[in-house]
Amino acid sequence: MDRRVLWAIALMMLIALAPTFLMKPPKKAGGRTGGKADSTRVTAPVPAAGPGVAVRPSPPPPSTGQGLELVPAETLTVSSPLYTYSISSRGGAIVQASPRSYRSLYPPEKDQPVRLIPDGASINQLGLIVGNDTLHLSDWDFTPSARSLSVVGRDSLALTATRGGVSVQLVYGFRPDDYEIELSGRATGLGPVGGTLLIGMGHGMRQTEADTNANLFDYGVVTKTDESKLVKFTTLDPGEVRTLNGPFDWTAVKSKYFVTALLAVDSGAAKISGATVRARTGPGKVHQADVAFGVPVDATGTFHYRIYAGPMEYPRLRAIGHDFYDINPYGWPGFRTIIRPIAVGARWLLVWMHQHLSLASGAVLVVFGVLIRILLWPLNQRGMRASLKMQAIQPEMQRLQEQYKNEPQKMQQEVMQLYRREGVNPFSGCWPMLLPWPVLLALFFVLANTIELRGQAFLWLPDLSLKDPHFVLPVLMGLSMFGLNKIGMSGMPPNPQTKMMLYFLPIMMTVMFLNFASGLNLYYFVQNLASIPQQWMLARERKKAKTAPVVGTKKK
Q1: By the 8 A CB rule, do 273 and 295 touch?
Q2: Which of 108, 148, 207, 492 has the fewest Cβ atoms nearer than 10 Å?
Q3: What is the pLDDT of residues 183-215, one digit of tens each?
Q4: Number of structural domains, the chain?
């Protein structure tokens, strides 16, 4: 194998994979505010209060038995074969969301049904801002239309509450086969001036994964205007308050595989006007942040939006539209245009083979690796033969370089004539051998972000989306790369640089792949094994080429 090809592969891997370790999302200037701030206050435009506004701040829950008496809170259960949601009668917020098809991989809760909302937290916790007054609904007692709801068609759950002349009605709408929840509501008694609806989305996601650090690293808030933007909690300083100005089509709080989102994508629905993200304090990096969104409310007091609380299944996210699938990105910014189509296709094929051919996910990766090698065989064959031609003309090129070393322009002309005379394209040997790399990069993101591959075991590997706990596959991958290159270099003239790359490249790749998904190592290992027959054929052709006529004897 031409050493320039080896250097090209090494440099491509360094350039393509270095952002995983080096890139850190920049903090936006002006995104911090000093001191303590109201965690529910959104810096969205708030209409000025007019005469007759009857809103006053909610009194705190009494602790002495005097004043307002609170009735015991109830937990209302909504369930279908797809999910179970829990809604509290106090505050009317969703206090738990459980996709029934998924089990927790977090060791203390392993194999229990996944729960997305941390204990003591809630999503869709509402408040109202009118003028300078803020009305929090977290301690309001709502009267529900039902204590439990088994969803078989389009069903709804209504909650109503009244306090101090202000009435609020919430209607949750459910479908049995969808994680989307429709929320419509109305607040009366606010006066003739509109305001802003505050929507609290908790302080993050519940831990659900075996690799807790990787999951915590993905915690963050995503917002969508013309493009989606992610603010990871780990990029915040303890106590920092970051403001995000809309309008947004949707906003979301995410972990590695699950998401709770607010969608303002229906016709006539008011856009999300802004958001605040307040990092909680504690030792180490920030992994929790109180998140609140704002939605304008007109003088009628009505509001409407959708909530998504469930897994990041690509087909579901894409079906919602408005680039909602961008919550689960395939590729880094700038690379996504190239990588995403390959990643989406690879994901579809892997899931289809697993579901329709009844193959284990690891077996699917093996078949996929062999299939990719077969499809690329003709191009690789052409590239390898081009490399043989380049090697064959090396003596003549060296002679021309020596002869015209003091005449660079003349030397370039003679070399180009040599290429034309011998039918050699100096670049044809490189690009066919680089074609597998976009697939490899796409699989990097597919295995790291595709929930259908979450928790899929194979042989000794407990989860193909996580690193090999015993580091067996990275070592096998490195050894297979060494063997592949050793066979490919068979019959080549001795070259110190080539010999160095023979050892350096496998070692470098092994170190880089130690903490990558074991499924990615499995795929690359299979690719190397499937490439050995082609490299062996190349070595045989190289030996035969030694008896071919000397280069430069073709008629001009």
Answers
A1: yes
A2: 108
A3: 999 998 877 777 889 999 999 999 999 999 989
A4: 2
Do residues 183 and 124 make contact, with C-beta atoms less than 8 angstroms apart?
yes
Residues 241 and 371 occupy one common structural domain: no
Look up tokens 């040997």; give the residue. Answer: 429
Of 390, 415, 416, 392, give the one whose Cα is nearest residue 402: 415
Answer yes or no: pTM beyond 0.70. Answer: yes
Q: Which of 530, 141, 168, 547 is nearest to 366 (CA)?
A: 530
Residues 302-327 as b or e (16 or more Cβ within 10 Å = b):
ebbbbbbbbbbbbebbeebeeebbbb
Which has the closest alpha carbon to 346: 101, 530, 520? 520
The residue from 304, 328, 352 where one domain ends is 328
- Rounded CA-CA distance 169/420 in Å is 80
Looking at the structure, do residues 324 and 345 belong to the same domain, yes or no? no
Q: Is 108 exposed, middle or buried (0-12, 13-18, 19+ CB in 10 A)?
A: exposed
Distance CA 178, CA 165 (A): 36
Together in a domain, 349 and 240:
no
pLDDT of 47-74, one tens digit each? 333 333 333 333 444 443 444 555 678 9
Secondary structure element (H or E) that encloses residue 504, with its range:
helix 496-513
In whole angstroms, what is the distance from residue 214 CA to residue 232 CA? Answer: 12
Crossing angle of helices 361-392/518-545, nearest 10°?
A: 30
If we measure between CA atoms, which residue out of 180, 173, 143 comes closest to residue 155?
173
Q: Looking at the structure, tell me whether residues 238 and 357 fall in a common domain.
A: no
CA proximity to 97, closest of 29, 173, 179, 155: 179
The domain of 213 spans: 75-328
Q: E-strand spans in 145-237?
A: 148-150, 155-163, 166-174, 180-188, 195-200, 220-224, 228-232
166-174 and 180-188 strand pairing: antiparallel
Residue 213: phi, psi to the nearest 5? -65, -45
Q: Are residues 344 and 307 in the same domain?
A: no
Element holding 57 (H helix, E strand): none
Structure confidence at residue 93 as a pLDDT band (50, 70, 90): very high
Which SS3 state, helix, strand or coil, does residue 18 take? helix
For residues 110 and 227, membership in a common domain is answered with yes
In angstroms, how far apart are the furthest CA atoms of the chain?
A: 108
The residue among 179, 530, 519, 529 whose CA lies nearest residue 354 is 519
Upstream peptide bond of 45 is cis (omega within 30 degrees of 0) = no
Task: For residue 350, give every residue at least 6 positions away whose Cβ sits within 8 Å of its Cβ, in sequence order, or none.
Answer: 361, 364, 365, 368, 446, 450, 452, 453
